[in-house]
Amino acid sequence: MQSLACLGFFSATMQFFLIVYPKSSILFEGGNFFIFLIIISLSYGLIKAWPRPIEQEYSQPKTIVKIIKGDILKQQSHIVIGMCDTFDTETPSVISNNSLQGQVLHKLFNGDLTQFDKLVNESLNGKKPISTIEKKGKKLKYGIGSTAIITHSPRLLYLLAYCEMNEFNEAKGTVDGVWRSLIALWEQISRTANGSPVAIPVLGGGQARMSNILPAQDSIRLIILSYIFASRDHKICDELRIVVQDKEYDKLDRMQLQSFLSSLRGS
Prior knowledge:
Elements: H1 2-20, H2 31-49, E1 54-59, E2 62-69, E3 78-84, H3 100-108, H4 113-124, E4 131-132, E5 140-141, E6 147-152, E7 155-165, E8 171-172, H5 175-192, E9 198-201, H6 216-233, E10 239-244, H7 246-249, H8 254-263
Parallel strand pairs: 2-10, 3-7, 3-9, 9-10
Antiparallel strand pairs: 1-2, 4-5, 6-7, 7-8
């Protein structure tokens, strides 16, 4: 598409040039010039299509936003982990081993549920539950936007409650809930991250069952928008990394996301 656009640009330029300088038509004759146009157009198309980092630096607020592919648990930064409002951690009976929460338990805490639970409960100590629920696993509900901050040296893990758990241990979220939880999250990060980079996953997929109403592309935009708005009020961190799983990253409209990031520079 970009190659055709380039070819069209050259064609329009040539026609204008011929109108102004009719005798110059000899310059555009012959097969060599046609080959030259094809090479230039294809080269331009390849350059435009070549994978590039999706990122944008902002001066107001002074920060960088990056959208990257990979495993969020391998990021050398503070990490945000999506949770339900009961902060359940037990696998596999309540939380799937394949979920990000399950991976945190097994990869970062070597499957030590007792130690992981101890840190989560210590972080929640002092936070007042808003209600209780009768179900298997944890029964105290802390509400959307609640955050348990635990240390996994040398970084912090922000366990963010952005969806609710029902009596059947089914997590469910809403777009409004994601937005409210993000606003609360940025406040917590501003107070505790000391400006260090923060990595956050795409929120809404998996067990939250929101893929149909908040696909990855829209979730990323929601995260970016909430972060930029919050950063204009007070500093959150020097760098936000939105980490996307490989299979989801390849489906993204990366040019559209880059344009979205760029559009927020002067808004």
